[in-house]
């Protein structure tokens, strides 16, 4: 069950990233992040009310608050790093954040078998290669590396925090709602500051353009929410070490979606990475 849920997480996150990437061709990246999170928070609010999840309020929600604060900061750093480039270095480097949930799992006493350790190593290498790393001719500014590492460890921290934010299904709905509200508040504040400093940060065409894209933005936000939910369930039902590695396969999904829908050609190193990632998945499942 852990493997299935974690793979569902990677599928949902990969598709959310793909959809978000398409939308950033029409809208500023920060607008995409904020609008999609507000849409997701609205839907989750309805679910929380309908299921009576308010009764699950407790100290565990602080983990959701922390995830909601860390997430937008990580995303903003990631987008800034991508803008500075080169993307072929930034994208795979961002996957190193998986060491956070892996470390949490090992600290809690999880000890994967030898076969699973091999699967973890193969899968992580595969994910890095699937990002299409530029191995030559790719000078990188120190600021870009720093931003990418901040983003990576931010993403990894969200992995770990959301896994601790609830212990029941209704509690998970509430935790995801709280996380999305915090995402919206932090992201909205960052957007307000950005627009004040540079009016060009606002979407060209104003709110009319944002409203026209709301159906797609809502789908991206809900896919992101669903991914957090399946990851939390995966971490609760099995080893966090296995769940974290399988969930981190989302760059492979994004690359394959770009190949299938946009006809983008995969680099040889990306194809090899995708193959290694799948091999690692098989080893993890077999272990």
UniProtKB/TrEMBL annotation:
Residue span(s) of domain EamA: 3-130, 145-284
Question: TM spans, by residue?
Answer: 6-23, 30-55, 61-82, 89-108, 114-132, 144-163, 169-195, 207-227, 239-259, 266-286
Source superkingdom: Bacteria
For this UniProt record, give its keywords in alphabetical order, as a comma-separated list: Membrane, Transmembrane, Transmembrane helix
Family to which this protein belongs? Belongs to the EamA transporter family.
Q: What is this protein called?
A: EamA family transporter
């Amino acid at each position: 069950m852990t493997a299935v849920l974690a793979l569902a997480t990677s599928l949902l996150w990969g598709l959310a990233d793909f959809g978000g990437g398409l939308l950033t061709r029409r809208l500023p990246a920060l607008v995409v992040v904020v609008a999609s999170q507000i849409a997701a928070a609205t839907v989750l609010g309805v679910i929380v009310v309908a299921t009576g999840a308010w009764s699950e309020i407790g100290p565990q929600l602080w983990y959701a608050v922390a995830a909601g604060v860390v997430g937008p900061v990580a995303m903003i750093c990631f987008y800034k790093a991508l803008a500075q480039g080169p993307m072929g270095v930034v994208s795979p480097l961002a996957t190193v954040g998986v060491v956070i949930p892996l470390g949490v799992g090992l600290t809690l006493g999880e000890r994967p078998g030898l076969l699973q350790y091999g699967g973890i190593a193969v899968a992580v290498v595969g994910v890095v290669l699937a990002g299409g790393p530029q191995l030559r001719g790719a000078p990188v500014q120190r600021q870009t590396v720093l931003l990418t590492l901040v983003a990576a460890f931010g993403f990894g921290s969200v992995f770990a925090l959301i896994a601790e934010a609830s212990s029941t299904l209704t509690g998970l709905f509430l935790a995801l709602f709280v996380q999305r509200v915090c995402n919206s508040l932090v992201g909205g504040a960052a957007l307000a500051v950005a627009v004040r400093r540079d009016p060009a940060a606002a979407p060209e065409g104003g709110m009319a353009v944002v409203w026209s894209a709301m159906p797609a933005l809502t789908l991206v936000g809900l896919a992101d929410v669903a991914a957090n939910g399946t990851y939390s369930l995966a971490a609760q039902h099995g080893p966090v070490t296995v769940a974290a590695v399988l969930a981190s396969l989302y760059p492979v999904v994004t690359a394959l979606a770009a190949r299938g829908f946009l006809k983008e050609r995969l680099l040889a190193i990306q194809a090899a990475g995708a193959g290694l990632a799948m091999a690692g998945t098989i080893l993890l499942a077999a272990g």
